[in-house]
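Query structure, 443 tokens:
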């Protein structure tokens, strides 16, 4: 299904470009408000949260104006992790929730993630219907003056979210005696992250908690894990937690300073859940999941299925197969027992709950040996270069050479103007050769 505005994870792009500006955000608000207003609810409610980008101050008022023009009553919540918004959308029985964020992207990008009343990201079908409304004449969707929506600020959103997270664990669960470093990427989790851990009794060293509108994800957070690595060593912490700009991703670090990616976290949780008879069905990974993870699950007799890249596709496969655990190497991890989308803080709590009896993080996470993997991201003017005959032939040649020795994957980024080229193999020379064959043609 070809879509005009929505990508693999909502709408995203350069601020003040063709789609990410006040004019378009008014139209997004008006169209989504018009669609979700059709639900049979006594009060039509939309809730909005955002990360810490400077552009949020420009885009949020435009979005609010569109929603209220459609007749929606709007609650704004300020900076809040994406899954906090998803959870509160469901708890507040709202028609919809909208997160203003560009996730792990730099400050100059922004976008939207939309959630339905069930707290789930929207399906392609619903996104397409909203797109059709965006392209209609504005006058067709405007409410009568008496039916315009109202706007209210909800100041307790982070506290409410923390309460929801803690309810998933026993009342006596605490983190006393643990020294934890958390890097909030100067993003949406900068309030909730440290407050949550402190409320459970941990000694918290928080970094990436001074957002200025321009420093979100800048040399910090899950895309720059070395920051947490050095902090764990410096403060002799038991564990490190690294979030991205909207806190739906998590990369961790053990007490020895070893970086733990999403695949390693998923493996550790899957084994724990299997022992506790909490694992339902198996695990959903993605095309980017390490081959070593796949082999490990096979040895443990745990079903493993790959989905397209993007946590929305992971969630869809989880629902289709009735699995309750899935995620990505990048740190998008969905704990289906507790949440509808990726949540870095929730995953951190589940890991910490497993470590509460004095287990070391290095032992907990040591489950499989990763197959050497190289990922290259190439900035391109047109992502359709992937369909160029020379590029297609280079991919074909590389896959023939790699057959039986590893894996090659070439795909468009769903959120940036980049082509991702990934290779996995124990044979380093062959891996480099195959990647160079493809990269030389794309560049």
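Result returned for the query:
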């Amino acid at each position: 299904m070809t879509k005009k505005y929505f990508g693999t994870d909502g709408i995203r792009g350069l601020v003040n470009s063709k789609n990410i500006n006040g004019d378009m955000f008014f139209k997004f608000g008006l169209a989504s408000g018009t669609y979700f207003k059709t639900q049979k609810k006594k009060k039509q409610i939309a809730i909005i949260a955002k990360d810490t980008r400077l552009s949020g101050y420009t885009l949020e008022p435009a979005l609010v104006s569109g929603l209220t023009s459609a007749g929606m009553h709007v609650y704004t919540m300020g900076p809040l992790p994406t899954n906090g918004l998803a959870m509160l959308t469901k708890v507040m029985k709202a028609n919809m929730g909208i997160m203003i964020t560009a996730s792990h992207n730099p400050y100059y990008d922004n976008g939207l993630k939309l959630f339905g009343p069930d707290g789930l990201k929207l399906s392609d079908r619903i996104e397409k219907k909203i797109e059709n409304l965006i392209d209609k004449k504005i006058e067709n969707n405007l409410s009568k003056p008496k039916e315009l929506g109202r706007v209210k600020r909800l100041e307790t959103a982070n506290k409410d979210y923390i309460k929801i997270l803690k309810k998933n664990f026993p009342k006596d669960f605490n983190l006393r005696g643990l020294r934890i470093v958390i890097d909030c990427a100067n993003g949406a989790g900068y309030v909730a992250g440290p407050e949550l851990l402190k409320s459970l009794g941990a000694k918290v060293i928080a970094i990436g908690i001074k957002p200025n509108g321009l420093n979100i994800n800048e040399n910090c957070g899950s895309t720059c894990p070395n920051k947490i690595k050095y902090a764990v060593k410096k403060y002799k912490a038991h564990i490190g937690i690294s979030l991205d700009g909207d806190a739906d991703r998590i990369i961790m670090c053990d007490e020895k300073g070893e970086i733990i990616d999403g695949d390693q976290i998923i493996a550790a949780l899957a084994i724990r859940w299997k022992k506790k008879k909490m694992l339902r069905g198996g695990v959903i990974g993605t095309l980017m999941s390490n081959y070593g993870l796949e082999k490990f699950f096979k040895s443990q007799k745990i079903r493993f299925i790959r989905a397209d890249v993007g946590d929305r596709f992971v969630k869809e496969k989880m629902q289709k197969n009735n699995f309750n655990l899935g995620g990505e190497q990048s740190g998008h991890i969905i704990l289906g027992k507790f949440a509808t989308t990726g949540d870095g803080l929730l995953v951190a709590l589940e890991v910490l709950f497993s470590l509460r009896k004095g287990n070391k993080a290095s032992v907990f996470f040591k489950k499989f040996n990763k197959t050497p993997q190289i990922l290259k991201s190439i900035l391109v003017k047109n992502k359709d270069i992937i369909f160029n005959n020379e590029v297609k032939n280079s991919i074909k040649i590389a896959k023939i050479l790699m057959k039986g020795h590893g894996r090659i994957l070439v795909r468009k980024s769903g959120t940036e103007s980049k082509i991702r080229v990934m290779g996995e193999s124990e044979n380093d020379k062959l891996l480099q050769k195959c990647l160079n064959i493809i990269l030389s043609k794309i560049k």
